[in-house]
Amino acid sequence: MKNKKKIIVLSALAFLLFLIYILSFVFDPGRQRSRSFALLEPSLADQADMIEINGIWGRTILSRRNNVWYYLFEAEDHWRELPVRQGRVEELFSALTSRQPYTQQANSFEARLRLGLTEDQASRITVRGGAGLPLLDLLVGTADALGRDVYTRTVCRSEIYSGEDRLSIFTDSGPHFWIDLRLFPSDTSSPDSVEMVYFGTAALFPIGTGPGMVQQAEVVLPGTEDSYAILRIGSGWIMSGSESPVLNVMRVDSWIRSVLDAEGDSLSFTPPNTVDGSITLWLGDNTIRTIHIGFSDDNGSRSAVVSGSNLVYSLPEWTVNRLFREREFFFDIN
Fold it and tell me: Is the same domain home to 107 and 60?
């Protein structure tokens, strides 16, 4: 009977200590009522010229030049630039500069440890401007129990806030999230043209190119010596040298769109030694763009380059099959 009472007392004591621990966090002296504010003042966004993100994929560096953002990576003894999806950066700035409700949860060192907000635990978003001075230096910690809110803390400040998680998608994403793998980048947020410097060479890409801009296309099918050309005549299309030249307009426009929207799986640094096929587009602004592809490698991918650029894309075979259509594809099926 005495042992049973001891067990009851000890159990009650353990529960009381646990309750005190929970309440010490919930009623932390630093806890305040919710208020709305922006993590980064909107007026500072235009001054930003570099973003550093340290997350689960390591370090990501984005740099702005001539109002265009680039992905920086160090190769050999210098930095190189890769094209960035400009809309991704806009989404990040939207998350940082929008006024959102945040609740101050704590300001103690113990709370930083619990919520993953020490500098060696947390993810980090640093926005720099001017002489490299940080416009924002933000630590992103763990999510709450429901996974909807995330805890944050500004470096050099002790206050911990919680708010809707709009940041983890940026800290938890790797290079493929940022790098623009489209063969013909066409972000509407970009200027009329994007100058991309790569291996010291500048390449100029048209922006906003659509099917209506294409006037003629020539296809050299890979693995064969077969080739054909299609030409725009008024609102329709014909195939050069065909006995029944009139083509299905919807099929041609759909194919052109697939070419203009084509993406690689990754970027490589070795152009194809031998060209196995090509697609050449004549555009309405009197420019010509050609995609050259090499032979399939052991992984079933092909290297591809676009005229005017030194970027080398890796295309999976299914993408190549979708782009290099047999001539019969463009005719009406009876």
Answer: yes
